[in-house]
Amino acid sequence: MAEAGISSCGLALLYSTEKHDPAQLRNGVRAVIGPSARLIGGYAVGIITRNRLGYEGHQVGVAVLASDSMEVDMFLEKGLPDNEYGVGLALGAQIRSREYRGEPNILLMYDAVNRSVAQGLALNLATPLVEGMSRALAPWPPTAGVGMMGSMQWNPTFQWFDDRIEQHSAMALVLSGGVRMDTIIVHGCKPASRYHTITKAEGPVVLEIDGKSALDAIADLLGSDSDKSWEDYPLFVTLGVNKGDKFGPFKEDEYANRLVMAVDQKRRGLIMFENDLKPGFEVQLMRRSIDFDYIARRADELLGRLENRTPFFALYIDCAGRASAYCGTEREEAEEVQRIIGARMPLLGMYSGVEIARVGQDMQALDWTGVLCVFSE
User: In angstroms, rounded to a whole number, what is the distance separating the alpha carbons of residues 252 and 185?
Assistant: First the structure.
């Protein structure tokens, strides 16, 4: 609040790692922003601001917004496990039912972790959630989204919605009035193979590629000189789906990447973060290649779209797998976003489980991707 130079705000965004009690943290923030400000957010693996970043520790990130031209609406639907499509349909219907001044801008946040005693570890899937919302919302207004989790250990996660503390919920923050959100995808992968066909899949598990067990197919693609065994595939092996010209030049904006979450050793399959890789889909093995010059170019490209509008806030949704501790880079790729964006406006980012952005004409769940959002008026 002091940094913003304001005594009151209309909206506070709050993200933190799981190492905080959600009620105590909410109470602490509420004690500063006052009883009337809207509050929304949830758990994250880590936090990014314009001059700091960290993950898997006690990080907390807060952004406060005050504007005479911005209108704030918030929507929530509960009960995500095994009902992602229905929740998305209901959430989209809520958003569509409201009238807005100007075009609405949607920030979707949902609990990515489905952890129950009966089911064990599983994910709430973004693909059917987005499909349900698409039925109610298409054509989509400017939208970005984040699948929230509080650590790489997949522990239960919590969401804040005003003074409520929720789990297994999907929330939408809708900003309208004089505000506009521009977004751009920051990939970190390039194709490393020809096209290969998924020949058997069940839910989020890819069982066969080109008629071979998925584990054997990936081993063949990596080659006999690879130092990776199947135990290394989670959070390492990434499959890409080209949504554009199959034989055209590589375009980052037309790829949806799918990251391996775990391995089904018994069935020799790959457990993916999403369930949309179906038999008949053509995929490519993707090679991770974080190009810091590319990140800077993408950030500059986004700023170039603002025309004569004034940017006042940036949000960066960054896959936790892109953090240097997990992908082995010498530098943090988020530092480049800090350098380009953080020097020009307030910046808040979170390390996420899933990222959602527009690919081609459709909204798409993404993995191992950054989604940069700039709000202007």
Answer: 8
